[in-house]
Amino acid sequence: GVKDDTMAIRAVYFSVCGMIAVHSENNYPKHIQAMNDWAKPHVKRATDMGWLIEDIFSGDLQRDMRREDFCVLAEHMLGTCGIDTAALSLGIPPFSDTQNQSVNALYRLGIVKGKTSVEFAPQDSITREEAAAILYRMCKVLEIKDVYMDYRLSGYMFADTESFSDWATESTYNIYLHGVMQGIGDDFFDPKSPYSMEQAITTMIRLYDKKEAEK
Q1: What is the pLDDT of residues 21-65, one digit of tens each?
Q2: Ramachandran bin of 100, using left for φ above 0, alpha for ψ from -120 to 50, beta for the remaining angles
Q3: Does residue 98 contact residue 85 with C-beta atoms inside 8 Å?
Q4: How large is the C-alpha radius of gyration of the chain?
Q5: Are 172 and 132 within 8 A, CB to CB?
Q6: Nearest CA among 60, 28, 26 for reference residue 44
Q7: Distance of alpha carbon 89 from alpha carbon 32, whole angstroms
Q8: Quick check: 205 and 198 in contact, CB under 8 A?
Q9: What is the DSSP string of 81-112?
Q10: pTM of the entire structure?
Q11: Dihedral in degrees, nearest 10, Cα atoms 92, 98, 101, 107
């Protein structure tokens, strides 16, 4: 039926996400060639792995990343790592304000949560601490072993720790201490600020590399 066909198509799509299509420098879109130098290698790798859907990841990648689009990126990364999300993306959407299949799948994996019990706020810019929490939950789904610790034992504290949301503190510190996300300098993390698209792509590549290093 239609449901089975949809699942099959999505399964095939994500099974090929890890296939590398090598681009020469001049073949990358101009918006990638023009972005910040520190982000270029990560964005090019994400492009080669098929993570960046053209209608989302086009134009200025220094703009804020939307919550819904972060989920699309995360689902592509999970697919490359062998996590089958096809069946999880279907069914009754858990939120009233989006039917995005990536949001559905990540919600059912326990990776994302709504702003309320019924609203996801898909068009809102994702904040730095929201991104950290999602990346941390992805570590659990991917069974990455070395990112669970009592961050207080590290002896390091951000200068703006008091501005962290309670639900984000553990995930933010663990994701930072294991090199997936970085602060903004001077021992600040700036948890409530929006996360840019190039930053989101960069951290997703770092998480992917962390998983690959365990093999």
Answers
A1: 444 555 555 556 557 888 899 999 999 999 998 888 888 899 999
A2: beta
A3: no
A4: 17
A5: yes
A6: 28
A7: 30
A8: no
A9: TT---TGGG-SS-SSSS---HHHHHHHHTT--
A10: 0.83
A11: -80
